[in-house]
Amino acid sequence: MKIAGIPRNPENSPNMSDKDMRLFHEIAEELRKSGHSVTLLDESDEIPDDCEALFHMSRTAATLDRLAECEAKGIFVTNPAAGVRNCSRREFVEILQRNSIRQPKYTLIDVAADKERNLQFPGWLKNSKGWSCKADDVQFVATAEEYARALDALAANGHSEAIFCEHIKGDIVKFYAIRGEEFFRYHYPDPSATKFGLERINGEAQRHKFDAEQLRETALQAAEAMNINIFGGDCIITAEGEIYIIDINDFPSFSAYRSEAAKAIASSIIKRK
After folding, report:
1. Cis (ω within 30 of 0) for the bond into 122?
2. Which residues in the chain come in under a pLDDT of 50?
3. φ and ψ of 213, to 5 deg
4. What is the pLDDT of residue 132?
5. Structural domain contains residue 228
6. What's the number of domains the chain is made of?
7. What pLDDT shows up at residue 196?
8. Does residue 83 fall inside a structural domain?
């Protein structure tokens, strides 16, 4: 089979581009070991006419448009373009709400007009468009004054809309999955090894008891609703064992599980074709 691969633009992978690229190349190597022809491209490269399957980490609008065209031609694309777009924050929270998947309560915010809005603090103010590429895209705000400053930072970065989410006390747990494969992993994060260190807000993990199978089922339900196949995410586990999904990301670096993830992703590509 002739397979093409497109990596993620470093601008869409803050502090994670090296880890993303290591996974990207391991997937290519696994596919080659299975006897398949693999061509690695840049986002600006033309996709070969004889391409039969395509794995990608792209989040760039123009590339996603091209990938959607490939899908229309019957080429298997690991994460459909529409699914990647669904990981943008507003789309994500609205999809979870429509599918009754537990998440923190949220409010849509007009960055220019809602500085005096009556909100319950503490909470999280998040850029509603795209992914977290800068530290100011997601901010913990404990007071009305911090909220106003956070809005100013979003406005300075050109954002007109934000989402304010309630703060849920509990353990942060990161999870990773590949639909169609027996691959689901989770762990408590190391705040020093994350994009912006925001995990420190919830403090040291208390390791509250929870139903791991329920987490797996909830994560897969969310991914199915979002039309995403290779994904990771974050959740909060409360002292009562309740699970709140707070983020879903397309094609994470799987850094804690990279080699086994590369094998599973390669397997999913081969089987889906």
Report:
1. yes
2. 196
3. -70, -35
4. 65
5. yes
6. 3
7. 47
8. no
